[in-house]
Amino acid sequence: MLQEASAVGLVRTILIILLIYFGIKILSRLFAPILMKYVVKKAEKKFGTQFEGFQKPKEQKEGEISIDKIPKTKPSNKDVGEYVDYEEID
């Protein structure tokens, strides 16, 4: 009961594979722009809510002072050692 592969069966299988391939290719061209719009809109909404506080400055009364950035102080390391001045000898 061993079945042999016939030429008709092989051609039929190749045609089915090609139809599936081109079908996916055509459908992806139709639905890719819709999918991309959805992804972009979702990302835009996420970033918009994440950075909402940075875009709206606080209202200030005239004469008020606000400091937005605190300057970083560099820690001094006095245990570095002694500085030795040297000269090059030719």
Automatic annotation (TrEMBL):
It comes from the Bacteria. It holds the Pfam family DUF4834. InterPro entries: DUF4834. Residues 58-79 are annotated as: Disordered. The chain crosses the membrane at residues 6-27. Keywords: Membrane, Transmembrane, Transmembrane helix. The keyword Membrane applies. This is DUF4834 family protein.
